Amino acid sequence: MTDNSPTPSRRSLLAVGGAGLALGAAAAGGAVALARSDDKSGEGMRPTAESGGAVPFHGAHQAGIATAVQDRLHFAAFDVKTEDRAEFVQLLKDWTKAAALMTEGRAVGEGAYGGLAEAPPDDTGEALGLKPSRLTLTIGFGPSLFDKYGKAFGIAGRRPAALVELPKFPGDNLDRTRSGGDLCVQACADDPQVAVHAIRNLARIGFGKVAIRWSQLGFGKTSSTTPDAQTPRNLMGFKDGTRNVAGTDTAALDRHVWVSDAGWMKGGSYLVARRIRMNIETWDRTSLQEQEDVFGRDKGEGAPVGKAKERDEPFLKAMKPDAHVRLAHPDSNDGATILRRGYSFTDGTDGLGRLDAGLFFLAYQKDVREGFIPVQRSLAGSDALNEYIQHVGSAVFAVPPGVRDGSDWWGRGLFEAKGV
Ligand code: HEM
Question: Is the CB of 295 inside a 6 Å radius of any atom of ligand 1?
Answer without folding.
Answer: yes
